[in-house]
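dumping this here so i dont lose it
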């Protein structure tokens, strides 16, 4: 029987989602407790491989169990023995053909920046930038990310293809906290953190908003933006 589960987690406590031999990861912890419940080995597949330090509010995973158990009992069993920095929001029985990653239609990420006074209590959960940014210019620049593009200039490492679709980029400011939301089809390695880094160059008034379009067209980081820290990034939602 195939299940999906919605998972929230504090990414600062883990070396990312993907299972690693000598490090604590989200996938590793989930497989450990599900194998205990199932009495035989369980493999967990996630909708996205969040990096070390990246958080999630609604990461979706799927897995197969060969025991008879209802959804609420499974949720309760998982939460009773999982590390307290992980929480299972719900479990649901799905068709055996469902795939958490390949069936996703869009993903929502949010990046949180503190432009105000340094906050040591939130150091693992925001980017303590602690300087004012030109948010108006950043909003103008963000529009260049929309649509179908090659995002090669904003992807770390190499891969076969860099094309994707971004449906929405929204900047929400409340006092000194700036939240940048991205909704799109597929996000590659460090892509959100790199796009935020480029937008921050605009916010720092080091480049014009059109510099984002120029990097998209030239497929190169010609303005030397920096990848922002993982601490401010959240996987917020996944739609199917």
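and the seq i came up w/
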């Amino acid at each position: 029987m195939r299940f999906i589960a919605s998972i929230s987690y504090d990414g600062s406590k883990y070396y990312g989602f993907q299972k690693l031999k000598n490090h604590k990861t989200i996938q590793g912890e989930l497989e450990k407790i599900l194998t205990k419940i199932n009495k035989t080995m369980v493999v967990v597949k996630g909708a996205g491989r969040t990096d070390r330090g990246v958080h999630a509010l609604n990461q979706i995973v799927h897995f197969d169990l060969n025991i008879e158990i209802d959804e609420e009992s499974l949720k309760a069993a998982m939460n009773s023995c999982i590390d307290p920095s992980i929480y299972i929001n719900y479990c649901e029985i799905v068709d055996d053909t469902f795939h958490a990653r390949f069936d996703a239609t869009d993903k929502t990420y949010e990046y949180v920046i503190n432009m105000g006074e340094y906050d040591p209590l939130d150091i693992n959960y925001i980017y303590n930038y602690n300087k004012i940014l030109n948010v108006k210019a950043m909003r103008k620049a963000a529009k260049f990310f929309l649509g179908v593009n090659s995002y090669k200039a904003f992807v770390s490492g190499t891969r076969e293809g860099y094309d994707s679709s971004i449906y929405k980029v929204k900047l929400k400011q409340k006092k000194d906290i700036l939240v940048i939301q991205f909704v799109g089809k597929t996000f590659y390695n460090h892509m959100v953190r790199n796009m935020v880094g480029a937008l921050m160059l605009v916010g720092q008034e080091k480049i014009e908003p059109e510099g984002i379009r120029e990097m998209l067209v030239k497929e190169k980081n010609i303005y030397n933006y920096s990848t922002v820290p993982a601490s401010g990034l959240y996987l917020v939602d996944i739609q199917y």
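The domain at 106-239 is CATH 3.30.70.660 (Alpha-Beta Plaits).
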